[in-house]
Amino acid sequence: MERQKQQRISEYTNLKIDENKPESFNRVMKEENSFAVFEDGTEGIYYTEGKMSDDEGFKKADDNLALERPYKFSLETGKRSRDLTKDILTGEQIKQKSAEILDYLNARHPDFIIKEGEFSFYRQTMSMTNSLGLDYKDTDGYTSMYFSFKHKDSKDITDGYISMQKREFDINKFISHADNILDAFCNKVELPDDIILQDTYYGYLSEFYKYLDAEDIALGTSLFAGKLGQQVFDERFSLRHDVSDKKAWTSPFFDGEGVTLDGDSCTYIENGVILKGYADKRIADKYGVPHTGSAVRVLSDIPQNGGVNFHIEQSEKSARELLDGRLTVYPIMASGGGFNEKGDYVMPIQTGLLCDGEKFIGRLPEFTIAGNLFEMFGSGFIGVTKDETALGDKSILMKMKLSK
């Protein structure tokens, strides 16, 4: 009988903001433990929040072998540890930095109300050990500031959102970002002739998480079924699972089964060609597809497929170089749309800003953009910038259509 333990310790400290001032402070520490035993192709699991001795935890997991959860795969071995945390903010530091930001914004932008938001610090440690000698530990953390805002003359409840998340949070960079947005909001401009969307790309990857599931591809229910080995996106578009030090962002270097990857990455789409779908051990064994180390450990159950952390390969060019004089639109408040089952995309943008790639110019009238997954990342794909640009993060640039 083999044994394995996985632990997650999370720390979350936040200061709530409402109507231009701090409202409430909260700090939460949470420890979660998952004990597992393996015998004759089955896995017994016991999950608990809070501390528990290994003897008691594994005894309870052993009792749960009677539930006959199937798991026939060998356990992993290896030793590795990393801590990617840059800043560790105390409660007092969070209060102090929040006060600095609010005092500045209230004085610099008296015509705006900071409706609600929070300044927070999150840190997570994931570890996995087993009776074969595996010993992995991964720690990461980041600081986040976000809030909604409203102009005092506006009839809307909210006019937009401002946010930034960083391992090393620079107050001056956040303030500069907020200044640029709020100043541009007061300058009304018209839509450009050509619509180029500029945004952080994370929210546009939902369909890749959905359709690159190797099981769905094998069953023919994925939009990418029958397209493996084909170039269906722009040759400049490559998509990778990446948990390297620079890209991890609280995703551990090991998956839910203790599998690690060469270079901490795996390429799924290269130069527009779909190479494969993601598969944990169970899916790879069931359908005869490549195993990609993509298990996510549901602490209270056997591993499930889906532990991927997708990133688009960045261009070697800046936003200005990619745009070559063209202007972009950046949505700071958009809702009521998304992708459908065919990959068509429609999104009403209630508040958008005109941008030259590096600086916001003015506020646009309400409009709706439309596209299709294969167009947005195909003929409409311009690239992902090498620089952080006006968004305070790397930007994706895509050609879109106006929808009536």
Number of domains: 3
* The CATH top-level class label of the largest domain: Alpha Beta
Helix content: 10-25%
- In terms of DSSP E residues, the strand content is 35-45%
Sequence stretches where pLDDT stays below 50 over 5 or more residues: none
User: Any idea what the CATH superfamily of the largest domain is called?
Assistant: PmbA/TldD superfamily
The rounded Rg comes to: 23 Å
Give the CATH topology of the largest domain.
PmbA/TldD fold
Number of strands: 22
Distance N to C terminus: 63 Å
Q: Briefly note the structural class of the backbone.
A: alpha+beta
Give me the number of helical elements. Answer: 8
The largest sheet, given as strand count, sense and whether it forms a barrel, is: 8 strands, mixed
The CATH architecture of the largest domain would be 2-Layer Sandwich
Could you state the order of secondary-structure elements as H and E?
A: EEEHEEHEEEHEHHEEEHEEEHEEEEEHEE
Task: Give structural attributes.
PmbA/TldD fold; alpha+beta; 3 domains; 22 strands; 8-stranded mixed sheet
Characterise this structure.
The structure is a single chain. This protein is an alpha+beta fold and 404 residues long. The chain has helices at 54-63, 91-108, 171-185, 206-211, 214-219, 281-287, 319-323, 373-376; strands at 2-18, 21-39, 42-49, 69-70, 79-83, 112-130, 135-151, 160-166, 195-199, 239-242, 265-270, 273-274, 295-296, 304-305, 310-312, 328-334, 338-339, 344-355, 360-364, 367-372, 381-384, 396-402. The strands form four sheets. Strands 1, 2, 3, 4, 5, 6, 7 and 8 form an eight-stranded mixed β-sheet that branches. The longest helix is centred in the first third of the chain and has 18 residues, at 91-108.
